[in-house]
Amino acid sequence: MRKYIIIIAILLVLGAMQFIRPERNLATVESRYDVFYLTETNPELVRTVKMACYDCHSDRTAYPWYSSIAPISWMIANHVKDGKKHLNFSQWTVYDKEERMHNLREIKEVLEKAEMPPSSYLLLHSEAKLSGPQRQMIIQWADSLSTQIQMSLN
Fold first, then answer.
1. Does residue 75 have a pLDDT over 70?
2. In this predicted model, what pLDDT tens digit does every residue of 8-23 receive, in sequence order?
């Protein structure tokens, strides 16, 4: 009997948790401050960055079905919040030039070390796994953008 009371209590707590919903990261339109907004950028690069990075590093997250289930929803919300704190592609033009340069150095570093996308994310999002050539393409883009920013600083 005691075992059933514990099971019922756990189920009630899990059920009650479903009513505590974190805010979702769902911009309805592309931001005019986005790094790719109104730029002539290789469409393959744009597609690759959006596929591998934008869920956590933009204002537009594509939520999987399980993201509505607490406590998973809370973990995803925290992950997205933390990712956007480090880099938000949707707010790129709001950053000053030094912040942009810093972000580009970070992008290169995490890609060269294969730290991004994180392996925990790739477990459920295999489509975000970057090949060597894709990593190189993003690194070259970051180098090119760094050069453009440096030239505008002079």
1. yes
2. 877 777 776 677 676 7
Give the per-residue pLDDT at 57. 95
In angstroms, the CA 53 to CA 51 distance is: 6
The three-class DSSP label of residue 26 is strand
Give the count of domains, the chain.
1
- Tell me the longest C-alpha to C-alpha distance in the chain: 77
Q: Length of the chain in residues, anyone? A: 154
Q: Copy the structure tokens of residue 15.
A: 């059920």
Among 123, 28, 117, 30, which Cα is nearest to 72's? Answer: 123
Confidence bin at 50 (pLDDT 50/70/90): very high
Q: Domain containing 52: what range?
A: 2-153
Q: Are 60 and 27 in contact (CB under 8 A)?
A: yes
* 17 Cβ contact list (under 8 Å, min separation 6): 70, 71
Residue 64: both structure tokens together? 């999987």
Residue 44 near residue 137 (C-beta atoms within 8 A): yes
pTM, whole model, 2 decimals? 0.81
Percent of the chain with pLDDT over 90: 50
Q: Which residues contact 36 (CB under 8 A, 6 or more apart)?
A: 46, 49, 89
